[in-house]
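pinging the channel bc i need a second pair of eyes. not urgent but kinda urgent?? the chain im working w is below, pasted from the shared doc
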Amino acid sequence: MGEQAREQKEQGAAEEAVAGAAVLGEEQTICFCHNVSLGDLRRAIRAGARTVAEIQARTQASTGCGGGECDVAEILEKEAAG
């Protein structure tokens, strides 16, 4: 599988994870570059992360290819709202 195809596959999986974050398990991978799960993001938020930059610093999510930054922001928004 080529690099572009792999990135598209990973992006699609991350988008699906975000769309169903309320019903997904904690193990669902959100950032494939650094193997960061939804649970990792939620724990960072519960520990006080309030911005995407703070979540990135705590988890490394979306700091590899950068493709998951919008996903991290959306999860942060959903977790803060609810």
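so Residues 3-81 form one domain. and The chain is about 55% helix and 5% strand. — does that match what u expected or am i reading it wrong
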